[in-house]
Description:
This protein is α/β, with parallel strands linked by helices. The protein folds into two domains: 3-124, Rossmann fold (3-Layer(aba) Sandwich), CATH 3.40.50.300; 127-155, no CATH class. It has helices at 23-32, 73-80, 95-99, 101-123, 140-153, 171-177; strands at 8-16, 45-54, 57-66, 85-88. It has a four-stranded mixed beta sheet with strand order 2-3-1-4. The longest helix has 23 residues, at 101-123. The chain starts with 7 loop residues before the first strand and ends with a helix. The model has no long low-confidence stretch (mean pLDDT 76).
Amino acid sequence: MDISHRKRTLLKVIVLGDSGVGKTSLMNQYVYKKFSQQYKATIGADFVTKELQVDDKLVTLQIWDTAGQERFHSLGAAFYRGADCCVLVYDVNIHKTFDTLNNWHDDFLKQVTEKKAREWCASRGNIPYFETSAKEGYNVEEAFLCVAKIAQQNDHDLDIYFRGISETVSEAEQQRSGCAC
Length: 181
């Protein structure tokens, strides 16, 4: 079978675990067949790609190497978006790194619900989906700008009417406030 006619699949894989457990080393061994004794902490995240054949499909793995340091945890959610799976890594010599796998796993699974929400929106006519944070001010402007654009596109000369206080006074009100002179 000609390779150009095979179905291609892109899978986003996130490598998670505490700082220093060997996430980058594992990724470099798989992709480049290289190992270095020197330790250099990953800052934020980085990714590499590797193509492989699974059955009759050509699969491209986009492997994201994430920082395990606590100060980078807030970035995690951004890198998890669109992920198909995660690889949880721990150091067999440091028991604490195994204990924290539950936290990494739970953080990742929270993002899976986002994937379900996106699929739900897509299945209902590609409704726009935004994750926002009122606390951080994240994506709030973008979400409302999108609302305004969609509303403007869908404008069918519908008037928005806000009912105000009636300017005419009812007969009952006239009688109550009437002067008995």
